[in-house]
Design brief:
Oligomer: single chain
Number of helices: 3
Largest sheet: 8 strands, mixed
Number of strands: 15
Radius of gyration: 56 Å
Distance between the termini: 172 Å
Length: 338
């Protein structure tokens, strides 16, 4: 079995001030965290503890006072921490004999922090808590208790605690009221006040405590005059981190370059020779064609024709006919002479 052992120093009445400060400690954990004023980004923070004690043990008519300060599986992050010890002992507060302040079957505490979230978590099962002067009688027995505090960037902090199963105080079964206080007074033994499931949140922090006991025990044996103080079970706290730091400088150049040239070439090449231009139609008109144009009215230079061409052709024909007639007449005269 894992265990922690603490030696309680013997001090005079001046130790009472230290015990009072410790007793106020759990209340301070729920207070808002100090705000950063220098512009620096704040890391997240998380704590978890299975047990904390702040007890003042008075001996020999209260002439000797022994502060009993103990904790079990107390962890704190940044980064990640986890502990699983199952018992804690204190020596020197009961005639030199060690006292098992707490024993449990399960006792785990975890604190984790990253750039976006801080979380504390505690799980405790089958636990018994003792104080000096009552070695055989537990001031509190619990079946199972859990606490959880989660602080995530951009979200509201969450604090949860649960007490499951039966709870006994000074040997008697007690009925607890969620968020309320329960008092138990046992004659010749002592008085205990229990606070169940204390939770609190601010805009950046959260704190959860499953059980907190105000203890005042005055046993009539073992030379212990009085035990007074606080015992806290399953406590978790957190503080929200500021989140990832923004980019220090904006991007100096655009991520893409503008296109310097068209991405596609023209689909058609220009014609090597210009297309023929349509012939301008004159005012005198002409024969209309199927494509809406008209036949040109001017003579084509390529054929060599002109306006006198018909007359020239007619004269040439007449000369041919005249020559043919002359040849025929000459032949006729020749026959007659012969």
């Amino acid at each position: 079995m894992n265990s922690n052992t603490f030696r309680a120093p013997v001090r005079r009445t001046a130790a009472a001030a230290a015990v009072a400060a410790l007793a106020a400690g759990p209340v301070l954990l729920a207070a808002p965290a100090a705000q950063a004023t220098d512009g620096e980004r704040r890391e997240g923070r998380a704590t978890a503890a299975v047990l904390r004690t702040g007890l003042d043990v008075s001996l020999l008519g209260e002439t000797v006072k022994i502060p009993v300060r103990a904790s079990l599986n107390e962890v704190e992050a940044p980064e990640s921490e986890s502990e699983t010890a199952l018992s804690v002992k204190v020596e020197g507060a009961e005639g030199g004999k060690p006292v098992d302040i707490l024993t449990a079957d399960v006792a785990t505490s975890t604190a984790t922090v990253d750039e976006r979230k801080a979380e504390g978590h505690v799980n405790l099962a089958k636990a018994r808590v003792h104080v000096p002067g009552l070695p055989s009688l537990a001031i509190i027995e619990v079946e199972k208790v859990t606490s959880r505090a989660v602080c995530e960037t951009g979200k509201k902090p969450v604090a949860e605690s649960n007490v499951l199963g039966h709870v006994r105080a000074l040997g008697k079964k007690v009925t607890l009221t969620a968020g309320g206080r329960t008092e138990l007074d046992v004659p010749a033994v002592g008085r205990i006040t229990l606070d169940l499931s204390r939770t609190g949140t601010t805009s950046r922090t959260a704190a959860a405590t499953a059980l907190e006991l105000d203890v005042e025990v005055n046993p009539l044996n073992l030379g212990v005059a009085k035990v007074k103080g606080t015992v806290t079970l399953a406590e978790a706290t957190c503080e929200t981190p500021d989140g990832p730091a923004p980019t220090e400088k904006p991007t100096e150049k655009p991520t893409g370059k503008p296109t310097e040239k068209p991405t596609a070439e023209p689909t058609r090449e220009p014609s090597e020779q210009p297309s023929p231009q349509p012939t301008e139609s004159g005012d005198d008109g002409g024969i209309k064609t199927n494509n809406g144009g008209s036949t040109p009215t001017q003579n084509l230079a390529e054929t060599g024709g002109s306006s006198a061409t018909p007359y020239i052709a007619g004269g040439a024909l007449a000369l041919v006919l005249a020559g043919g007639g002359a040849v025929a007449l000459t032949r006729s005269r020749a026959r007659a002479r012969g």
